[in-house]
């Protein structure tokens, strides 16, 4: 078992050795594994899965990058090497269903691995969480955030790429009665500036960086919490708040972190 503070996370190899086959593979992703801030999101989602008694496991040390940054940066050879390696690991464990906490992982596993023979039921965590709330399996205590002013930033790879707009909003509206949209939202939302492997390169010449433009959209709402659902978006929104010297008064939380607090686990 991988030990976290309050939950034991099952590892696929351990279950396989015992002849057990979980229903879901929880794909943690590079950010969930290595980024200190997004590790908190991965732990929060694992808590929810355990609280719901979901049959799941992670790959642990066997998990590699999906290859999305390599492909977006133009290194098709590296992408295919990484993807084919992952597909072989999935085959060895007979993986059928994958839940992701990263829109970039979600998009490439769902829409692009098929070309290499990887066909899976890939589920975004926001879709999964919305379903659990609608089915009454997650009971939100709306007293905690009832009057907290929140806005939501649409990740490109959830929104425009895959049409996932309603689910995160349903979740947020179950948590607070004080939700307001940014002026650019849904299919018209502005990118955070980190997608397409932009996270890993220097800024190009221009008058203003994209993340600064986007944080200004968020600040116009006067929200006290900016809700995100993507590790890249979380990094850029947090950087934007720091750039504007507003990080002490305005917080950036992933949607999962709000749920954990709202259900008290």
* Chain-averaged pLDDT: 94
Major beta sheet summary = 4 strands, parallel
Class of secondary structure makeup: alpha/beta
Task: Let me know the number of strands.
Answer: 9
| CA-atom Rg in angstroms | 18 Å
- Number of domain modules: 2
Q: How would the blueprint of this fold be written?
A:
Elements: E1 2-3, E2 8-9, H1 12-17, E3 24-27, H2 29-34, H3 36-51, E4 56-57, H4 68-72, H5 76-92, E5 97-100, H6 103-111, E6 121-124, H7 125-134, E7 150-152, H8 166-175, H9 210-220, E8 225-228, H10 231-243, E9 251-254, H11 255-263
Parallel strand pairs: 3-4, 3-5, 5-6, 7-8, 8-9
Antiparallel strand pairs: 1-2
Description:
The chain is built from eleven helices and nine strands. By secondary structure, the protein is of the alpha/beta class. It has two domains: 2-129, Rossmann fold (3-Layer(aba) Sandwich), CATH 3.40.50; 139-263, Rossmann fold (3-Layer(aba) Sandwich). It has a four-stranded parallel β-sheet with strand order 4-3-5-6. Strands 7-8-9 form a three-stranded parallel β-sheet, with helices on both faces. The protein has a two-stranded antiparallel ribbon with strand order 1-2. Helix 7 packs across helix 8 (166-175), helix 8 runs parallel beside helix 11 and helix 9 (210-220) packs across helix 10.
